[in-house]
Design brief:
By secondary structure, this protein is mostly helical. It has two domains: 1-35; 37-68, no CATH class. Helices cover 68% and strands 0% of the residues. It contains two helices and no strands. The chain has helices spanning 7-33, 38-56. 0% of the residues are buried.
């Protein structure tokens, strides 16, 4: 049986917990978007675009988010 107190095991467990938290956050965000109206969905899309550009420094082309 593997010794669960080894530092490598703890690091893997922390990484797995962080991934699970990210997935849980994504699921909560997706559920919340279903309750938004068109105006707020457009604002959210613009905010996400700004956040993406801030984090990755890339200027995306053709980023018009219009909900029909």
């Amino acid at each position: 049986m593997v010794d669960q107190t080894r530092p490598e095991i703890e690091a893997i467990q922390l990484e797995n917990k962080a991934r699970k938290r990210q997935k849980d956050n994504l699921n909560v965000a997706i559920e919340a978007t279903f309750r938004l109206d068109q105006e707020h969905l457009e604002k959210l899309a613009e905010h996400i675009e700004q956040l993406y550009e801030k984090r990755h420094g890339e200027d995306k082309k053709d980023t018009s988010y219009k909900i029909l």
